[in-house]
């Protein structure tokens, strides 16, 4: 692993549209970028046995998750010609309809940005130790299964 600083990707609560817009805006001065790819994960109001998911409460073992994210980041940068990558994941309660994951990759050419973004999302879902407790409309809950 490189000596680069491990970035904290976690933020409390939902990721706001303003935060996403500001992140995109900051890239207009980077004229070596030819393409961006963005993935936004949103909490679904799933129906489970006639009960509705109204929110997800995300938790993590932060130190382990940040080390894993750093490893994923290094792997993706060594595989794709990316200019930059930004990952933000919610912790705490996020209501149905709100954004809980924001992945933003940039590259000189679109294919690297798109492929890199897709692989980051797939690896986060498979490898990042983040757990979601689905909060149901009847005050019950269940642990979310990533699919």
Descriptive keywords:
147 residues, alpha+beta, Aldehyde Oxidoreductase, domain 3, eight-stranded mixed β-sheet, 3 helices
Describe the structure.
This protein has helices spanning 17-25, 62-79, 110-127; strands spanning 10-12, 35-42, 47-48, 51-60, 84-95, 99-107, 130-136, 141-143. It is α+β, with helices and mostly antiparallel strands and 147 residues long. The protein has one domain (10-143): Alpha-Beta Complex (Aldehyde Oxidoreductase, domain 3), CATH 3.90.1170.40. Strands 1, 2, 3, 4, 5, 6, 7 and 8 form an 8-stranded mixed beta sheet that branches.
Summarize the structure.
The protein is an alpha+beta fold and 147 residues long.
Q: Quick one: biggest sheet? A: 8 strands, mixed
Distance between the termini: 29 Å
CATH superfamily: Molybdopterin biosynthesis MoaE subunit
Query: What is the H/E order?
Result: EHEEEHEEHEE
| Mean of pLDDT | 93
Number of helices: 3
Strand content: 35-45%
Multimeric status of the protein? single chain
What percent of the residues sit in helical stretches (DSSP H or I)?
25-40%
In total, the number of domains comes to: 1
Rg on CA atoms, Å? 16 Å
Query: What is the CATH topology assignment?
Result: Aldehyde Oxidoreductase, domain 3
The coarse silhouette is globular
Structural class: alpha+beta
Based on the structure given, which CATH architecture is correct?
Answer: Alpha-Beta Complex
Strand segment tally: 8
CATH class category name? Alpha Beta
Low-confidence stretches: none
């Amino acid at each position: 692993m490189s000596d680069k600083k491990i970035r904290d990707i976690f933020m409390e609560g939902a990721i706001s549209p303003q935060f996403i817009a500001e992140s995109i805006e900051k890239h207009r001065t980077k004229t070596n970028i030819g393409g961006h790819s963005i993935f936004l994960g949103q909490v679904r109001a799933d129906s489970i046995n006639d009960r509705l998911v109204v929110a997800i409460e995300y938790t993590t073992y932060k130190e382990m998750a940040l080390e894993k994210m750093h490893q994923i980041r290094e792997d993706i940068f060594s595989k794709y010609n990316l200019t930059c990558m930004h990952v933000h994941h919610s912790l705490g309660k996020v209501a149905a309809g709100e954004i809980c994951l924001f992945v933003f990759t940039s590259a000189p050419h679109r294919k690297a940005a798109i492929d890199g973004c897709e692989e980051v999302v797939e690896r986060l879902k498979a490898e990042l130790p983040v757990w979601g407790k689905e909060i149901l409309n009847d005050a019950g809950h269940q642990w979310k299964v990533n699919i």
